[in-house]
Specification:
Length: about 750
């Protein structure tokens, strides 16, 4: 290459590099060049992808200091693409198309510009409805960066004043504003809470237990957390993480931006909350561990996927996170990060080995101590360590017992324990052998009461795991007898039971398919005397190929699924509830039924039907489900006249019943007041409360309001139970009649007439 050619080549390279850098910086700066949509401080109360019921949060909730009426401005130039008004959801919304192709959404607004407000009023009168959904052409409503768009509010389903702000890409997918030009000053690392280890095969065992286990995480430094101890695992498992992020200056808990799982320094799973498609919102049920959430353990982000069908948009790469590791020790680590790339690490150790068994015996006693030998049972490997928990005689754990001393004796471990922690208690020993394997629990009573297996009442329950089922039979107390189950139906299935803790017996995990056509479960406790208890249990099996129905034992309740209801093969059934949560108003006209498995994630809806009593009509009745926050809540119910069934769709398995509600809605606190007088210029708004305690108001169309016979197209706030109507102008002098009619979802109706005057 000649010198000239070389110089030219280098010049071209330099020019190309400079141009690329300029273009990169231009894109970067343009991405960072948005302005804040409110003329307030940057306080965000909820961030992108925060888990909500059956959906992810699609944007940011920006604080408005508990007030409405703050100016909302365009973050960049573009045009108004759409405005929408409704009484639920986002309330008043403005969609703006930016010049860079993105769409931004400003929601829960109190109002728009004067021009847009006029357009809305015109559309409401033309359509004779409060709801408006108006689109504009690209050059019809141009806006510049910083232009006024409307006022912040609390319209729709908002729980308080704030601005809901979204960014969407060119495919209308919500994207994370924090990583797309709206990053905030943040020097705080994500904070770790707990780690869950979840069995993903029938053979999986975690620390000697076949059910999911939750472990606390110990903070070693601001940047590092550790497992509490080595976790002993056998067969295939997955991890789930409970963690939050904080932003400098705010005492608010946010969703993390991402997490990466490594085993032996090899990436096994990557999660990044960057964007998602609305069509995949239902995958929240598989992204956040549904079982732990339904058991009120909080939100645990799953670091695994069961199948491609359950893979959310946040899962990156081809790694599935299902850990099936070779025998021995493995290092496990997680890298958890926020939008500002503040990183927190978690590290720990898995030991992979099949579970073992131990037995324990009391060797001697002293005034203040007892000496116990812990032996391996069926294993050639000596016991090198142990864990001991003390339970009271009713089966409740009270304390972890640490040894005063311990020494090896052949293959056994001899330990000295304090009497004050062990007397009158059931001691549960878990031995650790020389290979690091953890045993199942062994129970040793020390001067403790042993329960009478012939008279103690037992309860049966079923846990539906990802790929297996575990049956539990439990009672208060410790039993020295052996126990087993027999499942009877078209085939006979016998299952031995293990007493996993005092009074609680578990079967080994088995496949849901084994429950097909089961009608009865027999629990047998063997000893000097044998006791048999029979439980009616008639589950149905959904394999995703056809619709399947399960019936309650009394035949009055039906749970109908489709081939789209579940993500995987699932056994489902109905249980009668003996002591349901009482009603403050209304009355039960059927039994209360619990649909099971209550913690199973549903892909699509199921349908529940309950039969009316022969002597009762369907009037003023509906199917209700019990919500832990809201209490008994109405489900939109339909009557089948032929078989006298009330039925309703639902997206989670709940406690359900037919409830009669005869109390009409309350209409109160209205302005104008009865026989009140107002000056024309002071009277601009009609407002009041419409509330129903049980069935509730379904939608704003269930409320009607007229002024001198003319319909008013008002807003109904479903959270505040508030009706609000802004007058188009000033009322002329005279007397007026306002009539409000409200109908709840089972047909109870109230009417209120208000006469007032304007000077």
């Amino acid at each position: 290459m000649s010198k000239l050619t070389f110089q030219y080549y280098q010049s071209v390279k330099l020019y190309t590099l400079i141009l690329a850098t300029i273009l990169f910086l231009s894109d970067f700066l343009s991405a960072q060049d948005y302005i804040w949509p409110l003329k307030l401080g940057r306080v965000v109360s909820s961030n992108f992808a925060n888990p909500r019921p059956r959906r992810f949060h699609a944007g940011l909730d920006i604080s408005t200091e508990g007030k409405t009426g703050h100016e909302v401005v365009a973050i960049d130039s573009g045009y108004v693409e759409r405005i929408r008004v409704s009484s639920d959801g986002y309330g008043r919304i403005l969609y703006q198309k930016l010049n860079d192709g993105k769409t931004v959404v400003y929601a829960h607004l109190d109002g728009f510009t004067d021009l847009l407000n006029e357009i809305i009023r015109f559309e409401q009168k033309r359509n004779r409805s409060y709801d408006v959904d108006k689109y504009f052409r690209p050059n019809e409503m141009l806006v510049n960066k910083g232009d006024f768009l409307g006022y912040s509010g609390d319209s729709g389903g908002a729980f308080g004043p704030h601005l809901h702000f979204e960014m969407r890409d060119t495919l209308n997918r919500p994207i994370n504003p924090f990583t797309n030009g709206f990053g905030m000053d943040d020097r705080h690392r994500p904070k770790m809470d707990r780690l869950a280890v979840i069995p993903l095969s029938p053979e999986a065992v975690i620390n000697g237990v076949t059910l999911p286990q939750v472990f606390p995480l110990h903070r070693k430094s601001a940047a590092l957390y550790e497992f509490p101890d080595t976790i002993h695992v056998f067969n295939t498992v997955g991890l789930a993480l409970s963690a939050v992020d904080e932003i400098t200056g705010f005492a608010i808990k946010y969703n993390i931006t991402g997490a990466v799982l490594f085993v032996d320094d090899v990436e096994q799973f990557r999660l990044e909350f960057d964007h998602y498609s609305f069509t995949n919102n239902h995958l929240l049920e598989m992204s956040v561990d549904n079982s732990l959430r339904r058991l009120n353990d909080g939100n645990f982000h799953r670091l695994f996927v069961i199948s491609n069908e359950t893979k959310s948009d946040f899962v990156k790469g081809s790694s599935h996170g299902r850990l099936s590791l070779s025998s021995g020790y493995h290092s496990v680590s997680l890298r958890v990060f926020d939008h500002a790339q503040n990183v927190t690490r978690i590290q720990g150790t898995f030991y992979i080995a099949p579970p073992t068994r131990v037995r324990a015996e009391i060797l001697s006693e002293k005034a203040s101590t007892i000496t116990v030998a812990v032996h391996p049972d069926g294993s050639p490997f000596p016991i090198t360590d142990f864990v001991c928990y003390a339970f009271n005689s009713k089966g409740y754990p009270e304390v972890k017992v640490d040894p005063i001393s311990k020494e090896k004796s052949n293959r056994a471990l001899v330990v000295e324990l304090p009497k004050k922690l062990t007397r009158n208690r059931i001691l549960q020993f878990m031995g650790i052998n020389s290979l690091g394997g953890v045993s199942e629990g062994y129970h040793l009573p020390y001067k403790a009461e042993v329960a009478d297996h012939m008279t103690t009442p037992f309860q049966l329950s079923v846990s539906h795991l990802e790929k297996s089922v575990v049956i539990e039979v439990a009672a208060r107390g410790y039993f020295q007898q052996d126990a087993n189950l027999t499942l009877k139906g078209s085939k006979l299935l016998k299952l031995p039971l293990k007493q996993v803790r005092p009074g609680v017996f578990h079967s080994a995990p088995f496949k849901p398919q084994d429950l097909a056509e089961i009608e009865e479960v027999t629990f047998t406790v063997s000893g000097a005397a044998v006791r048999e208890m029979r439980f009616r249990f008639n589950p149905e099996l959904s394999v995703g190929e056809e619709s399947v129905a399960a019936f309650s034992i009394d035949g009055k309740c039906v749970l109908q699924t489709t081939k789209q209801t579940f993500y995987d093969t699932t056994a489902f059934w109905i249980e009668a509830v003996e002591n349901p949560v009482s009603l403050e108003t209304g009355r039960f006209t059927s039994k209360v039924y619990q649909l099971q498995p209550f913690d199973r994630a549903l892909k699509d809806s199921a349908r529940v039907s309950i039969q009316l009593k022969n002597s009762e009509s369907a009037e003023k009745k509906g199917i209700f489900y019990y919500d832990q926050k809201k209490g008994w809540t109405y489900l939109p119910s339909k009557l089948s006249i032929v078989d006298r069934l009330l039925s309703a769709p639902l997206y989670s398995f709940e406690a359900v019943a037919i409830i009669e509600d005869t109390v009409p809605p309350r209409i109160y606190d209205f302005s104008p007041g009865q026989k009140a007088s107002y000056s024309s210029t002071d009277f601009t708004t009609i407002s009041g409360k419409v509330e129903d305690d049980l069935a509730g108001i379904g939608k704003d169309k269930d409320i009607q309001m007229t002024l001198d016979g003319e319909s008013l197209y008002f807003e109904y706030h479903p959270i505040k139970k508030e009706v609000r109507y802004r007058l188009d102008g000033f009322l002329g002098a005279g007397q007026y009649q306002l009539v409000i009619t409200a109908t709840d979802q089972v047909g109870n109706r109230s009417t209120k007439e208000i006469t007032f005057s304007v000077n």
